[in-house]
Amino acid sequence: MSKAKKATSELNSYDSLIPPKYHHAAALTFLFLLIVFFFRDVIFGGMIFLSPDFIGPHSFATLLEDARKNGIFPLWNPYIFCGMPAYGSLTITGDRYFDITSTILESVTKVASFLFLDAQYAWAFFYYFLMGAGVYFLALRKVKGKIPALLAAISTVFSMYIIIW
After folding, report:
1. Does position 13 have pLDDT exceeding 70, yes or no?
2. Mind spelling out the 3-state secondary structure of 127-143?
């Protein structure tokens, strides 16, 4: 059997297993299940990535309370370093309704957090999945093959630094 016929027969067997219109959904579901399986101890076992700093964020409580009372978004923090840009240095975040992309992404992240038992880490899993899905579709566009695109997404998701932790 020639190489072209063999590749075509393998492709047809793959198509008979999953209908072609569901290939992308199946690839993304597989990627999602791999992420859930890899992080199963964090999702279901009550483990954590790293012990966080619970004291540091309390230093911004006064600033945020003042901003909430005045109904403003805190752009400047007068309580550290004789004043420092809060928004520009990314030390203070809040509801940024003027940023439509951020608002949509935050809403989707909150909805995705209901899928996990520990909502504290749901954002990390959601962003891992979002990164993997983005790489899948980028590789699909560049390579024009679904299986190589899935392999690119899997290798990207599991090659990041947080996996080392």
Report:
1. no
2. HHHHHHHHHHHHHHHHH
Q: In sequence order, what E strands does the chain have?
A: 76-77, 84-85
81: left (phi > 0), else alpha (psi -120 to 50), else beta? Answer: left
Would you give the DSSP letter of residue 116?
S
Could you tell me if 43 and 125 are in contact, meaning their C-beta atoms sit under 8 angstroms apart? yes
Backbone Cα Rg of the chain: 22
At residue 15 the predicted structure's pLDDT band, cuts being 50, 70 and 90, is: low
**Residue 150: pLDDT band with limits 50, 70, 90:** very high
Tell me which DSSP letter residue 15 carries.
H
Average of per-residue pLDDT across 115-133: 75
| Residue tagged 């520990």 (tokens) | 118
Q: Are 126 and 32 in contact (CB under 8 A)?
A: no
Give the largest Cα separation in the chain, rounded. Answer: 77
Band the pLDDT of 141: cuts 50, 70, 90.
very high
Which residues 6+ apart lie within 8 Å of 35 measured at CB? 125, 128, 129, 132, 157
CA–CA dist 130, 111 (Å, integer): 14
> pTM (2 decimals)?
0.58
